[in-house]
Each structure stands twice: as C-alpha cells, then as structure tokens.
User: Fold this.
Amino acid sequence: MDTLLYIIVLAGTFSMMEGLTWCTHKFVMHGFLWYLHKDHHQVEPGFFEKNDLFAFIFAVPSFLLIYFGTYDHIWWMQAIGFGIMLYGLAYFLVHDVIIHQRFKWFTKSNNTYVRAIRWAHKMHHKHLGKKDGESFGFLFVHKKYMDKVRRDKKLMAGSKKVEYAPEAE
Ligand SMILES: [Zn+2]
Ligand SMILES: [Zn+2]
Assistant:
C-alpha cells in the first residue's frame, strides 16, 4: 500500500464530506428530515437536540468502512472510513464547540477564521424556518464572511485609537 495514495484518499474524502454535508444540510435536514433538525434552529431546553442524531447517522457508514476495510485488508475502504471520521471530529470541533460553544473551550478567540465561521453560521441560524436559508457549509467559509471580519477588525483597531483620546484618560 502506498502511503501517499492513502493520504490522498483520506484528504479527498475529508474535503468531499464538506460538499456532501452541505447537500445533506440543504436538501435533507432542511427537507424531509427537517423535524430532526428543527430544534437546532428553534432551540429547546436541554443539552441534547434531536439534531444530534445526524452525528450517529454519519458515524454508521464511517464505522462500517473502517471495520470491513481493516477486516478484509481493503486499504482504500479504510481510508475513506477514516476520512469521514476525521471530518466528523472537525465538524464537532467547529460546529458544536467553536460556533455553538456547547463546551467553553475557545470562547474568546479573535482568529479571523474562527470569527468568520461563527458569523457565517450565525447567518444560517438567523433563519428560523425550513425555507430560505443561507450558508449551509460548516468548515468552508465563503470569502465574503472572511472579508467582513477583516473589515471589522480594521474598524476595531481604528476605534481603539479614538477610544484612547484624552477624555478617556
Ligand atoms: Zn440548518
Ligand atoms: Zn448550528
């Protein structure tokens, strides 16, 4: 087995998962499975959401691919399984931890990517209903959100200078 090929399949699966998740989010979660995703947009009390079930739905093919890939020595099958699993972990870290802060780990980050992805997903959550959403992706941030954060950062840096004008002393 070629290590480089393994990494290519793994990385390829990882990036294709963002596209697949975008489609699933737009057409399935905001489609016929909206009843499972609804409580992510219209939050109800309690730590768990029906929406968390999607994590399990994605974990099943990942587990099966790793299991049979390892058992039958089909390396590419195992690589695809691990690619899905890695995407799942990244998704959890970005969507559940960084954006929704279900665990208070990176709450004060000023990193442009972190702020942009938060803003982009906030725009998704602005829509409480099933129809007319925007920004269905998770890890990939559209350039317009990155630009917005960069602009905000510049403004912030500018206004700080004003804030420290004589009367503030
Ligand atoms: Zn949604
Ligand atoms: Zn969300």
User: Anything to note?
Assistant: DSSP finds six helices and no strands in the chain. Confidence is low (pLDDT under 50) at residues 163-169. The pocket of zinc ion (ligand 1) is lined by residues 25, 29-30, 37, 41, 124, 133 (CB under 6 Å).
